[in-house]
Amino acid sequence: MKKFLDLGIQPLANSYLKRKDLHKKEKKFNLSAGFDKKNYLVSILRTIPKEKMFNKDYPYKSSESKTMRMAFKTLAKKIKKRFDPKLVVEIGSNDGAFLFNFDKKKAVGVEPCKNLAKKTKKKKFKTFSEYWDINLSNKISKIGKADVIYSANTLSHIENLENVFKAINILLSENGVLIIEDPSLLKCLKNNAYDQFYCEHIYIFSTIALNKILSKHGLILFDIENLNTHGGSNRYYIKRKNSELNKIKYSVKKEIYKETKYGLKKLETYEKFAKRVRSSRKKLLNIFKKIKSKNKKIIGYGATAKSCTVLNYCKIDKSYIDFFYDTTSYKINKFLPGSKILVNKYKKLDAKTDDYVFLGAWNFKHEIFNKEKKFIKNGGKFITHVPFPKVI
Ligand code: TYD
To answer: How far apart are CA 132 and CA 112, in angstroms?
Structure first.
């Protein structure tokens, strides 16, 4: 494993602080990323025990984003039409945004965060509030084999990938389909989106790396879709090698070609990325300093886990950003970890009072710009660091 990026000392990204805990010492760790030349796998080098990240206080709820709800609805429709599954199992079912599109007799959720599992259980969807592993897979297999196993933004959060895929192999039916969705490493590098690295994102998958892991487990990619979610993700369709299902689509070859051409098999590509990241930090900080020197006000929009990496890496704190706006009920009136910037309940932006707005949720840029048309029209400005620091 060769380290290529050091993002400094960071708190746990989703550990928003209550006012009464502001004086307490936060748990911090060194966030750095490395490249495994043998498996072409990119991962963070120090990991945090899963129980510290995925527990009853997990703040992220898929249902709170309209974009995500719509994406899940469309996908569920497509899955029914294309694969007609008798049983769908979702690993990381969150608060049910995907699962609720299925008949409750045909869908099972896996969600270790009890606050979220409660939501699907309440609607009578069978939900296992446990971490995904071989034991759990054996348990679920007793209900039946899964024709579709779906997992979005979850498998990259689990350290032991051997165990993950062995467990999948137990549960997947003979001609079953595994559908995985995760941020694309290629997009992350192209966007200089170093904030895809934080404690929960243990891996950022490339198709090349994923392919290697799958082949060890008798699994094979047969289709890929490029998505806009989470700043650029891939949806991977996977089957057993001896499955009778679909032929391998050209999309697989194309994605691997794109990734190889960009250099995802070479350490040098990652070292160049790290250089761009260091320059991005310098430029972003200069933008903030320049604005502050004119006594203008900056607020943040979308208190994301991603912005935690940016703020702590660039050492941007409340002397630069007055507060963040966010729509997530759990985050409101809490403080961002590390930078300790307050999160306020979302209010429509007003160019009279808000001069500059840092886009923490840059992955929802279009949705946000649409919502804040008036602010933009009245001369309000946004600051983003993706793909490079600039004022919009
Ligand atoms: P998300 O994209 O899941 O980022 P991460 O995985 O890095 O935490 O989170 C988006 C956050 O942005 C979420 O807290 C909700 C917030 N948000 C708003 O406050 N307003 C909006 O209009 C949008 C689209 C998001």
So the answer is: 8
Q: Report, as an integer, the average pLDDT of 173-192.
A: 98
Tell me the two tokens of residue 260: 């190889």
pLDDT of 348 over the 90 cut: yes
CA of 302 to the centre of ligand 1 (A): 5
pTM above 0.90, yes or no: yes
What CA–CA distance (Å, rounded) separates 369 from 363? 11
Residue nearest to atom 24 of ligand 1 (CA): 364
Q: How far apart are CA 253 and CA 170, in angstroms?
A: 28
Give the residue from 61, 62, 34 showing the smallest Cα distance to 47.
34
Ligand 1 centre to CA of 277 (Å) is 22
Residue 361 Cβ inside 6 Å of ligand 1? The answer reads yes
Residue whose pair of structure tokens reads 């490029």 in the numeric block: 226
Find out whether the beta carbon of 304 lies less than 6 Å from any atom of ligand 1.
yes
The 10 Å Cβ neighbour count of residue 207 is 26
Q: How far is CA 169 from the centre of its chain?
A: 24
Q: Is 125 buried (19+), middle (13-18) or exposed (0-12) by CB count in 10 A?
A: buried
Strands 203-204 and 41-44: antiparallel
Pairing of strands 28-36, 343-345: unpaired
Q: Is residue 246 predicted with pLDDT exceeding 80?
A: no
User: Which two structure tokens, joined as six digits, stand for 139?
Assistant: 């348990």
Amino acid at position 212, single letter: K
Look up residue 335 and give its DSSP letter: B
Q: Is 346 in the pocket of ligand 1 (CB under 6 A)?
A: yes
